User: What shape does this take?
Amino acid sequence: MLQNHGLGFGLSTAPLMTNAKTRSISAENPKGEVGAGGKEASNLGIARKGRPCMTLKQGETVTLVDVDGPGVIQHFWITVTDRTDKGYFVLRDLVIRMYWDDEETPSVEVPLGDFFCNGFGARSVVNSLPIAVNPTGGMNCYFPMPFRKSAKITIENEHAADIGGFFYQFNYTLVDELPEEAGYFHAQWRRENITTAAKDFTLIDHVKGKGHYVGTYLAWAALERYWWGEGEIKFYMDGDEEWPTICGTGTEDYFGGAWCFYEKRDGKIVEVPYNTPYLGYPYNSRTDTTRSDIFGEDSVPMHGLYRWHLMDPIRFENELKVTIQQMGHNSRALFERTDDVSSVAYWYQAEPHAAFPTLPAVQTRWPR
Assistant: This one.
């Protein structure tokens, strides 16, 4: 049933034929038009890789996708440099936004790298089911994104220079209709560069309407010593006030790990990164290479983690708020911490959605 609407395609449905129409948008066919791809010329002649990418002008917002529905975006791929001679945080300086059905405010507003679980303005390999980032900087998304009237996706360049070599491809299907229960994809970025002691960090709040929460990405810079991940994640839904309906047991537990991710190697205790289809800890770094020739490589410990609720979505009928605590352990007792935490929350819901908080200015998004 879902496959007929372009929302699902697995091994069991692979043989099934439908009336859906496959389209693709890239720099070689920017409108996804029938029989219109690859017409530009290179030094090899017409239709020989004449326009595989584009340049993002400094300060401009470019529309990547603008199509009528009904349809479903099924996969998209983007790659771009992570630095220029004007700065090192391109992946935080570019902002991706998505608008469904002619809405005025975006349903997705996230720095490009963080959307693909590459926080801190740094590349890392991610090997999960809905998000995959492959060497070198090949960013892929497989979250289905249905739209009934229209889909518009933009990229804004707030970097200090033009960025050449922006490659992209959006693969989508046009269908006769979508199921009534198909929700709209949303994603929101937040950051507190210093959290408040004993106050939970908020990933999302004021989500109204029916939907389900499908994922979390955290870019966590530890600013205090000892173990940083004792905080519990909390899901407040449908009338919860002081106490949540769902409360986790610890940060590393929520991301599918245990006991601080620690293993003993060469006589030392180390945190061990990992990637799995639904949860992972792909990034663990204590070095900064942006100006290592001048300042060395010392940095605060940085941790990137993802958790996909695809097999266990957090369903809500009317409202949702998600928070996580900042607590540590010094081997003797718990203690309240203040750290630098960024997040991306991913969810589906019926429209309209509540307006997002104002996205922080570009320099305040840069990693510590």
About this structure: DSSP finds five helices and 29 strands in the chain. The chain has a mean pLDDT of 96.
